[in-house]
Amino acid sequence: METSQLSNIASQVRRDIVRMVAGVNSGHPGGSLGCADFLTLLYFDVMKHDPKNFTMDGAHEDLFFLSNGHISPVWYSVLARVGYFTIEELGTFRKLSTRLQGHPSTDKKLPGIRMASGSLGQGLSVAVGAAQVKKLNNDASYVYTLHGDGELQEGQIWEAAMYAAANKVDNIIATIDFNGRQIDGDVEQVLSLGNLHQKWQAFGWIVLEMDGHNLTDMKNTMLKAQSHCGEGKPVVIIMKTEMGQGVDFMMGSHKWHGVAPNAEQLEKALSQLEETLGDY
Amino acid sequence: MEFEILGNKDTRSGFGEGLAELGRTNENVVALCADLTGSLKMDAFQKENPERFFQVGIAEANMIGLAAGMTIGGKIPYTGTFANFSTGRVYDQIRQSVAYSQKNVKICASHAGLTLGEDGATHQILEDIGMMKMLPNMTVIVPADFNQTKQATIAIAEHQGPVYLRFGRPVMPIFVKPDAKFTIGKADILQEGTDVTIIACGHLVWKSIEAAKVLAEKGVSVELINMHTIKPLDEEAILKSVSKTKCVVTAEEHMILGGLGESVAQVLARKLPSPQEFVAVNDTFGESGTPMELMTKYGIDSQNVVDAVLKVLKRK
Asked: d(Cα A94, Cα A24) in Å, to the nearest integer?
């Protein structure tokens, strides 16, 4: 898909995010806005998947696991826009009996979701397990994941990282949303990750980096990541993003990690985001 | 009624044999172990199915996540480690990635309770039944002997959904017939009686058989139930028996809070209020010692079952 088309979709996704969060006065707009470009690219261009015929097993399809489940608004929007369910359902986000739970879940059977997430640090293990079963089943598709940078403070991530390298799980492409922010402040201040690139390398992963708001760079990096699959090592991409990307007053700070805009702020945000595909 | 002793073995070996048999009969079964392959008796499965066996090292949180992920694509993962590391250490991973996500993972836990013995309290988990039964979607099974553990191991592969299977280390008498059918949620009535109902699980079933013998000599007619499935609980079996005997003793190798006794008490409180005595560990950690010494010291031996029966009979 042309980057101009992807860019249009991402703009609409950003409108969905702020409207969903404002609609229930809760949720996590900051990280969601930061990952809008990546998830748009992944679902509309990179992944091999079948939105109209979702199955839990996803045999011979690429799988995606969102490990940092709190950025559910961006995932829900992209899933709806790509056809897993209707865009009208986005209006039920976080409301009683919704399939669009605050954090992603499987129990309400929302198409596109294969694992609950929210309690951080668990998604990489799950994805590695799914990737190993793909190999057992002679299924040559890829398994993608997304993680927060703050989430890397959870020990389980590194258990999974060690295991995946030791077992040559080379059909997984993990991406880190490296926005440098978490609830209490800058990651560097809360608990520094040190040299993240070297850490992943030391754990035996192929490490790539990309600009999470440059669709061309991301597309090239994803292709490069795919080309590394099968080389006996798992692949991780450190994706530099800006929390709140696209809404000027939400950028440059950790303050919009988990705060919803009020009516006035919503209008201001929407004025900066072009309605390209029609609001839900 | 006499119970024939068919041999003496540990329940963990029943798990190992059951898993090995599954390896031969069900190609979807995969097994994961956190550096305790020998202790869990998973060697045979590993040897016969190296491509379906996953050694995860000392990383239990990762093991639970891997297992959850392996269900996607149709596998039936069996995880193996000690009960403490199967539950308390990984509670949140089980809660989110297995129970809430409704994944078909079988969490197989050995060395449960005091009878782990000399390793002491760090390893002697007595809270695991409570933790696991509180999770929605979770089935909790505590088989009584070697044969029943083998049968349960095989049976849970046919059950779609998360299961916690709890077994142990000590060598104990075998009394369940090798060809008995194991049905999840259906209690075994081991002996019919009229004066008191004893409901037990795990190693306490044998201890209760011993107690019933002593009580018979005292003229007490015991109805003995092997409640191998804690959840879903066979309420019908409990109500049918206690409506006849009018009193009950529960016996388990678990904390008094959160275990089998508590589940039975809740059923009776709602539907058939009756005197109940609890043979269980009373809000304390264990310590080093031989399994049988510990059962005596912490009040979960056959004599404690006898005493509890005599006490509850006076409350009728």
From this structure: 7
